[in-house]
Design brief:
alpha/beta; Arc Repressor Mutant, subunit A; D-Maltodextrin-Binding Protein, domain 2; 3 domains; five-stranded mixed sheet; 14 strands; 24% strand
Length: 293
């Protein structure tokens, strides 16, 4: 028998408990394909099939029922032992993987990470700054900062705040094309959008802006707005410095065309590791004011 990956066995246990690959993937905040691969790895290592699969049903084999019954209790014992060990741990140690949008990370997160490392030198932080929504389970990420929709039910969330999203434009663009006085006046101006079908709404009036540039990257949207390529709808706290330095101008008195929920996300765990708990607590205390530009 090959060396067994107990993480793969834990995934198989979750499939059994959830009653299927799709439900297990949902509870683990990952993909059905990833769950299927991990179960296949466990089966190859054990040398026996754990499940009988058909197009309409999934049930444990006799060997699978026996193996997973014993494995489930063993994994629970391991989790409890780790929890008890950490309960007596006074100082966080180990690797902490954190992901956040690039612009947020550069403007706000680095000082928080520096303070965290000064307080907890036994932790090594790996920081993934990207506007891509990384899969926390598949990519072994401990903490994610995200703005936008509510998270998958397979993730734990802690709210940092609700940020308004106003419209901004460079003074040069406005000098050339004029300052719009109403949201309808924006329809004729070039726009920097995150997606081609993006729309803006204010006071019940909705407009579809004319895209000059479509880019899903927040920092690129900000750069494009600064270069005068078009009007952009950006999170208020991300444009605060540019507005203060008069590199960008708030349109329509800074009234938001939408809001963005900013959250800290972590994978579901029986007990949150001390290194994660301390980082999230610091992040919540030191996070920027999200309410205004």
């Amino acid at each position: 028998m090959k060396t067994i990956d107990y993480n793969a066995l834990a995934v198989a246990v979750q499939v059994s408990r959830a009653g299927g690959f799709t439900a297990a993937a949902r509870s683990l905040a990952t993909s059905k394909q990833w769950v299927s691969r991990r179960v296949a790895e466990a089966e190859r290592a054990l040398g026996v099939p754990l499940f009988e699969r058909t197009t309409r049903s999934l049930k444990l084999t006799q060997a699978g029922a026996r193996v997973l019954a014993e494995t489930s209790s063993a994994l629970t014992a391991i989790a409890e032992a780790l929890h008890d060990a950490e309960a007596g741990q006074r100082e966080p140690v180990g690797r902490l993987r954190v992901t956040a949008p690039l612009l947020f990370g550069r403007q706000f997160l680095m000082p928080i990470v520096a303070e965290y490392l000064e307080q907890h030198p036994g932790v090594q932080v790996e920081l993934l700054l990207t506007d891509r929504h990384a899969n926390l389970v598949e990519e072994d990420i401990d903490v994610a900062v995200r703005a936008g929709k509510s998270p998958d039910s397979g993730l734990l969330s802690r709210r940092l705040g609700v940020a308004p999203v106003p419209l901004v434009a460079s003074p040069a663009l406005l000098a050339r094309l004029g300052v719009p006085r109403t949201i309808r006046g924006l329809a004729s101006l070039p726009a920097v959008l995150s997606r081609p079908d993006e729309q803006w709404a204010l006071d019940g009036v909705r407009v579809k802006p004319r895209p000059a540039l479509v880019v899903a990257h927040l920092e690129a949207q900000l750069d494009a707005a600064l270069l005068g390529l078009g009007v952009a709808a950006l999170l208020a706290f991300l444009v605060r410095a540019a507005v203060a330095q008069r590199q960008l101008t708030l349109l329509l008195s800074g009234r938001p065309v939408r809001t963005g929920l900013v959250q800290v996300l972590t994978p579901h765990r029986r007990a949150m590791p001390l290194k994660v708990r301390r980082f999230i607590d610091l992040l919540v205390r030191r996070s920027p004011d999200l309410s205004a530009a």
